[in-house]
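hey all, quick one before standup. I had two proteins in the batch that finished overnight and I want to keep them in one place so we stop losing track of which output belongs to which input. First protein below, input sequence then structure tokens straight from the run.
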Amino acid sequence: MNLVSTDHDFMHIEYVSSAYQGGAHDNFGFSERVFDLKNNRKLELKDITSMPKDKLEALLMKNLNKENSGTTDSDGDVNNSEMLLVDVIPATNNFYFDQKNLYFHYSPYEIAAFAAGDIVIPVSWDELKGTLKEEFKERMKIK
């Protein structure tokens, strides 16, 4: 468990787990949790945006290659989209945010091959414009 940030009365904690379950390598995973310290509860996606799930999932697919997972081959960097195992990237509650973006974090095998490692997909506040919850916007000072 790692305390990542405590900004604007939100606390971001990242949980990391790892286990050997047989096979060629161990498996690992990440769980992002953001707590609303002002209201004493775990933050959910619906507390941030009202964007319909299908539109958010389209943004996740569009932004999939914005942050490379670090995977390379003999030709250099490998795009996350080259290792994708799903047709639709689900908008999950495994998210966190900063002043610029909302980030969705996916563990190995969740949406891509193990070789992709964990994948983080950013969605900018501008891309969510018009769907951000007013209280959240005010606390985060998003214009």
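OK second protein, same deal, sequence then tokens:
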Amino acid sequence: MPAPSSEPREVRQRDAERTRAEILEVATAEFADKGYTGARVDEIAERTSTTKRMIYYYFSGKEQLYLAALENAYSVIRDLESRVDVDDLGPAEAIRRLAELTFDHHESHPDFLRLVSIENIHRAEHLSRSELLPRLAAPTVEVLGGILERGRRTGAFREDVDALDVHMVISSFCVFRTANRHTFQAIFQRDMLDPDRREHYRRMLGDLVLDFLTAR
């Protein structure tokens, strides 16, 4: 007698994964637009092909859904960092490649920056309870740390700088450029996301980081 097919279970699992991913996508946009307090689970349910009850089934509650959106947003950039191929590049070019990756990601994921800003308003009270928190930092430290060590061995990079110093410099530029776009434009009449200036700013970031690493 043939074994029963596992297809129905697999189909249900794929449907569940798609539903969960759809909820996360809409929730990310909702929280990024209205903040943790202003976002409504009813609105998220209305904008997805599911129900409020189903959202609570997958995420237990609003706080858990918000934390899942945060974790997912951080995981995207951390996954990119962990997979970036810099082993065959010289230290200077590797640093520039990683800086450009962050530049590109932050420009194309404005909701990520809004979520981070919102969580800082809440003093990271939700993110600090994340079970994924240790894994959210590891790729940045590991990749940057390896590049810095290679640069120090050749005498190209200064000794008194660590991976988090470099990460802070890169993030500061990329976050400011996107998160402060509107106020900067209102004050100075310059759009930092102007496509005509994109490559200028992208190159500027790499130059700034390398000047910092090679300063004596």
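Flagging for whoever picks this up: Residues 7-38 form the longest helix (32 residues). The chain has a mean pLDDT of 93.
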